[in-house]
Amino acid sequence: MTPLVHAAGMASASDPAIAHIDGLVSTYGFAVVSVGYGPCSEPGCDHGPSPHPWAYTVGLMAQMQPELVVMGSTIQEASEMVHAVVDMRRDGLALRHADEFWAVGVPVMLCVEDVPDPWVQYDPARMSAWFAWNRGRYGTVPVVQQVLWTDGDGAFPFDEDCDPWTVADQPVLSVDPFAFPEPANRATRRAARREIGRQFPSPPPPWGPRAA
Prior knowledge:
alpha/beta
């Protein structure tokens, strides 16, 4: 599956890309959207690379899985990590907050961590394609986990001995859900929140309380 490329805040329900996401979700069960890696797929989009590019999934909540986000890797690496985690869960493996594991086809160790809701609530443009595709299907805010990856010595970015470049490239969203990626401007955030309020006059989240 080739990841779609967007700039934050570029997706809307009328975009042809959202119809493409529908097709990918119907075929594969989910789509991977990459943001901040350079020129995007949207006509008229001139956004350049972001210092903190990220990729996220659309469609996994339909399978009662959390959506996934990967920070700082290449597009191909992010896609491989996402597919590995999805396949492991489809095989029946329960991957919970803070679990560390090896995955087939991924050369580094992985960890999944719950992403606090404010990461999306503060700036819905961070997952704009999810909101545009969702259209009221699975609640107002996606349940999200971050897939973290190790440096060359096997250290995660939350470890004291992790390579500083890996730490800089891969912000841990559970530690700071506000700063990364760089928020959209105020007008874009307000527009995204208004659109979410229009789509979801009363939130019907399908998930129970998260485990402590």
